[in-house]
Amino acid sequence: MLSRARHLRRFTERFASRVCACPSHVRGAALTTTALLALAVTGCTFTLPQRPVVVETPVAAINSATLDQYRSAVAQRIVERNPSYVLRGTPQAMLRSLVVVSFTVDSNGQVVQSAVYRTNGDDEAESTALATLRRAAPLPQPPGKLLNSRGQLELFEDWLFNDDGKFQLRTFASPQAQTIN
C-alpha cells in the first residue's frame, strides 16, 4: 500500500502531465493548486460526524420485571393447586433432591411441553415435580411481549425437596436450615 505522501506525489505528477498542453501561467497555477491541495490533505484527517448516541433500554431489561412477575404468578398457581405437597417453613439443611424443570407455556397458559432439565436422579421427586406442574395447568396467561415468534414462553423452575417428599419452589423458597439435625 502506498503511503499518503507517495500517493499524492503520483497524483500530482499525473495531473501535471495532463495540464502540460496548457499555457504556462495556467500550468503553474494548476501545479500550485495541486501542491496546496496535496499539502492540505496530507496534514488533515477526515473524521466522519458522529451519530447522536441514542441509549435504548434493551428489550431484555424491559421484559425482566414482567418475566419475574409472571414467574411468581406461575409459582403461586403451582403452590395453590398442590397444597398437600408444599413444604411450609424452613427447608432442611441437606435437601433430598433439587429438580429443575423446563416447561413451555403457550399464549393461553397451557403447558405444551415439560421435561426434567436437571436432577440428582431421584425418580420420585422428578415425577412429583412434573405432576404438580401438570395439576397447576392452565397457568396464568403470559404477557404477549414475553412470547416468542411461535406464541410460546419457555421457563425453568426449581423444586426443592425435603426428605418427607414435600417441596418449595425456588421462586418462593425460604432460606435453608444451617445445621443438620
The run of helices and strands is HHHEEHEE
Gross morphology:
elongated
Gyration radius (Cα, Å) is 35 Å
According to CATH, what is the class of the largest domain? Alpha Beta
Structural write-up:
- With 181 residues, the protein is α+β, with helices and mostly antiparallel strands.
- The protein has 2 domains: 4-43; 63-172, Fusion Protein Consisting Of Minor Coat Protein, Glycine Rich Linker, Tola, And A His Tag, Chain: A, Domain 2 (2-Layer Sandwich), CATH 3.30.1150.10.
- It contains 4 helices and 4 strands.
- It has helices at 4-18, 24-43, 59-81, 123-136, and strands spanning 97-106, 111-118, 152-161, 167-169.
- Strands 2-1-3-4 form a 4-stranded antiparallel β-sheet, covered by helices on one side.
- Strand 3 (152-161) and strand 4 (167-169) form a beta hairpin.
- The longest helix has 23 residues, at 59-81.
- The protein starts with a helix and ends in a 12-residue tail after the last strand.
